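Below: protein 1.
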Amino acid sequence: MGKPMAKNLLKAGYELTVNDLVEAAVNELVEAGAKRAASNAEVAAASDVVITMVPNSPHVKAAVLGPKGVLEGAKPGMILVDMSSINPIASKEVCAEVEKAGCEMLDAPVSGGEPKAIDGTLAIMVGGKEEVFNKVKDILAVMGSSVTLCGDIGAGNTTKLANQIIVAANIAALGEALVLGKKAGVKPEAIYQAIRGGLAGSTVMDAKAPMMMDGNFKPGFRINLHIKDLTNAIETGHEVGANLPLTTAVMEMMQWLKATGHEMEDHSSLVRYYEFLADTDVRR
C-alpha cells in the first residue's frame, strides 16, 4: 500500500525521503525520484511531514517510538500522519508521546486496497486536530478521492474499524446468498445481475461477486489483514463496552479460512466457508 501511495506523491511533485524494511520497495521509489534514508529517524530529520504505513499497532510503535524511530529524528512542529490501520487506543498512546516531543499527529487509515492506492482514489479517514488536518489535507488528497476528518485522535481508526466490519459482513452475506441460490437451482450470475441495481447492491457486491464466481481470490485485501482489523474491532468493542456479535461470527469464518490455508487470499474467499458447508461452489 505504501509504495503506490508514495509514487502518487512523487507524481504530484512532492519531495520524498523514504525508508522501509523491504529494500526492493525503497529501490523502486528511489528510481522514481525519492531520496533514500537509512532509518526512520533519518526520514524525520529530513521532513516536515512524516507518513507511516505499516501493518499493525506494534509496528507503528516500533517505527515511531523505537530505536532509530521517527521521534529520534523529529524536529519540533513535525507532523506525523499514521496511515496504518491499527487499534485507536494505540493511536492515542503514540500521539501522547509525539506531542511530548513538540510534534503533532493524525491517524489517517485508508480503505480501498491496493487498486485504489495505485490510482489515488483511497477513502481516507482522519482523526486529530482540525488545524493540523488542514495543514496536510492537500497531501492526503493526492492519495485519496475522499479525505474526511472524523474527530479527535483515534477517530480515524475507529471509523476504519467500522468500515471493516461493514465490508466483512457484506462479503459474508454475499457468499451466503450466492451459495443459497446455487443450492436452490438458480445461477449465481443471475442472482447478482438481478439484485445489483436494487437496495442490496453495493460497491462490495460489484467488486467481490465476480471474484467469487470466477474463483479468483488473488488478493486485493488479504484474509490475514482482515483478521487483524476485526481483532482490533473486537478488542476496541471490549474496551468501550460495545458488543459485536456479527463481527465475531465473521471472524470465526475467517479463522477457518486461515486454518485451512487460505489466509493469503482475498477476503472474497469467505465464500469458500459457505461452499464447504453446502458442498457446492458458485463458479460460473
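Below: protein 2.
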Amino acid sequence: MRIVLVALTIVLFLILFLPAYFVLWIVGKFNVRAKTAASQALVRNAFRACLFCAGTKITVLGRDGVPRNEAVLYAANHRGLADIPVGYITLPTLTGFVSKKEIRKIPVFSWWMKNLHCLFLDRDNMKEGLKTIMQGIEYMKSGYSMFIMPEGTRNRGEETELLPFKEGSLKMAEKTGCAIIPVAISNTAAVFEQHIPWVKRAHVIIHYGEPVYPDSLSKEDKKRLGASVRETIIQMLKEDRTLL
C-alpha cells in the first residue's frame, strides 16, 4: 500500500505542479535565485509528502553547525533511493545535487532538477565529467551549495563500510575554498532496497558533520582529503547506529 501512495504522490507532484514550473521559468528570467528558492521549497514539500506516505521517521543531527551564509559542499555516503529526499527536506542551504547522467532523460523530473542547479555527471567520459565539475564550481562561486555522493553509486555492503571515494568530486571545494560538510546517512536502504518492491516504515538518521575548509589544511592533509572525509563519515555512521 505504501508503494502506491508514494508513487501517486510523485505522479501528482509532476502533473499538478507543472503550471508552477512554467511560472518559475518566467520568474527565473528576472531573478534566478528566487526561482531556485521557490523550486526547492516545492520539491522539499513533495519529498516530505513522499516520506510521510512511506512512514519514514527522520532524526537530524548536527544541522545547526552548517554555515548558512556561504556555499558548502556536502559529501555523503549513498545507501538508497531515499537518500536524496531525506537530504532535501533537511538541507539548510540552497543546494543542487550531483546525479548520474541517466536522470537527465526523465522528463519533468529532470526539469525541476535543473531549476535546483543539479548536475548530471557522466562517469564514463572524463572530459564531460570535468565540465560538470567546472559547472559545479561556478554554481558554488555564485552562492549555491552542492551535494555529492563520492562513492559514485549505491553501496550495498555493510552500513559502516563505504566504497572508495572518487577524489575528483571534492575539487569543487578545493577550487572554491568552500567548506566540505561530511554527511552520514543511516538506514535509508530499509525504506525500499531491503525489500523491493515494497516500501516499509523505517527510522532514518542524517548526520551533518563539522565543516572542513580545504584552505586551512596542510599540504599533506590536502593530499588525503577524500580519505579523511570518508573516515569521518564512517565514524559518524558507527556512532549513529546506537540511535536506530
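The radius of gyration is 17 Å.
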